[in-house]
Structure formats: structure tokens, C-alpha cells
Amino acid sequence: LFVDTPLDTGISVPVEGAAANYLGNVMRLKPGDPVRLFDDRSGEWLAEVAEISKRALRLAVTGHLAPREAVPDLWLLAAPIKKGRIDWVAEKACELGVARLAPVITRRTIVDRLNGERLRAHMIEAAEQCGRTALPTLAEPEKLDALLRVWPADRALYFADEAGDARPLAAVARPGPAAILIGPEGGFTDEERAAIRALPQAVPVTLGPRILRAETAAAAAIAIWMATAGDWR
Ligand code: SAH
């Protein structure tokens, strides 16, 4: 369970709302039952149900289980797509171990407003489900050309390009600071494609012969990079 306050042994954590309902009525926890908590700062803690009522419960933190995990240094740069689909991308990126989700505004991006709170809520839920103890960071939306101008010298930019000459990602993925760039439903313009390829750190990659939906391309690219270059192996 994610708790947005610094955890420590001996502190008491009040739980209410949906989380309380889940623990109390779905999991049917009783006083003394164990609950694992994380605060996205100090790792994972063990707590137990101290008291429980219809609408709320209180947990007592009893010990530290593990330090905050280190995830591979992979960013996902994705042009925002329709609401339900970008939520799905945020959830999959969290499950698959992405360190940072950076929405990129490109010429053909049709979604111009992003609800960061909603995306963060989806990532918290995904982390609780998959057992991550460090949440991906969620960057503010940035324009593609602004991002390229300040691109970090040491970070590879795997540019998912379905329309240009590109190598299979599995063949070129290397460990180290990395980012995967996925376009919007309408793809990249030729000018954008040239500007991205002009970056020394750019590595154009293909995800196969078919045109994948942006969200499919994002999940597939992250999984391929993790499997071939993620430093957790
Ligand atoms: N321009 C395409 C649609 C873009 S698909 C068209 O309409 O024909 C959305 C994004 O997914 C693309 O910008 C690209 O980043 C990624 N993508 C889709 N299929 C891909 C593939 N086979 N290889 C690499 N990237 C792909």
C-alpha cells in the first residue's frame, strides 16, 4: 500500500477511503494482520492493523523490510494519446520498471492537456499491484524540440521509428542511461524525424514490420529494452 508520508518504525498510519475499504472489506483484514507499506522515499515497511472500523483503519509500522528499490535508468518519452490509452501506458511503464515518464508534445499530438494527478494515481495503483517500492517520476509535458535541445550527453535515445531505416531494438539496446521515444497516433513529421536523427545520442529502432498503436509500441519497446539491457538481469 502506498502512503504519502515518510514511514518509520513505531509510527501510526491512518487509512481511510478506498484503501480502507479495500483492506477492511475486500481483504477483510483483522487487527494484527500484516500490511506492507511503501512511501516512495525509504523503501518497504511492515505494518500491522492496529484498529479497524467500518470506514477507517489504523496501521502501526513495526519494521523496515527493504530499501527503496533502484530501477533501471530508462525513461519513456511518449506523445500523449487518448486518455484511457495514456493511462494504460503509465500503468505498463510502471509495471515494466520505467524510472521516468515524460510526456512529449509533437506536431501531431492531439491531446494537449494531461491530468498528471490521474496518471500518478494509475502509477501508484500499478506499483501497489506489482510490488514496486519506487514510483516512476512523472515529468511535465515538454515540446519535442525543447527536449532535443537539452538532451543529456550520456543518455541513449531509442527512437521508435516505423517509417525510416532502423535496427531492431533487441539488436542495439545497451545497458546505461536510456530513453525510448514513441510518437502520437499520427506519427512523427519528416522534419521531426530528421531533427531526432540528427541527435548524436539517437538510435533509430524498429519494433517489427507492422504499424503498432502508440501504446503497444511503448509497452513492447520497454519490455524489449528491459529484457536485453535492463540492469536488473
Ligand atoms: N505514422 C503511423 C502511425 C504512428 S504509430 C501511421 O499512421 O502510419 C505511433 C508510434 O508508435 C510511432 O510514432 C512510433 O513511435 C511507434 N511505432 C509504431 N509501430 C512501430 C514499429 N513497427 N517500429 C517502431 N516504432 C513503431
UniProtKB/TrEMBL annotation:
It catalyses: uridine(1498) in 16S rRNA + S-adenosyl-L-methionine = N(3)-methyluridine(1498) in 16S rRNA + S-adenosyl-L-homocysteine + H(+). It is an enzyme of class 2 (transferase). InterPro entries: Alpha/beta_knot_MTases, PUA-like_sf, RsmE, RsmE_MTase_dom, RsmE_PUA-like, tRNA_m1G_MTases_N. It is found in: Cytoplasm. Residues 73-225 form the Ribosomal RNA small subunit methyltransferase E methyltransferase domain. Its EC number is 2.1.1.193. Residues 16-59 form the Ribosomal RNA small subunit methyltransferase E PUA-like domain. One of its GO terms (biological process) is rRNA base methylation. One of its GO terms (molecular function) is rRNA (uridine-N3-)-methyltransferase activity. It holds the Pfam family PUA_4. One of its GO terms (cellular component) is cytoplasm. Keywords: Cytoplasm, Methyltransferase, rRNA processing, S-adenosyl-L-methionine, Transferase. Belongs to the RNA methyltransferase RsmE family. Specifically methylates the N3 position of the uracil ring of uridine 1498 (m3U1498) in 16S rRNA. Acts on the fully assembled 30S ribosomal subunit. This is Ribosomal RNA small subunit methyltransferase E. It comes from Edaphosphingomonas fennica.
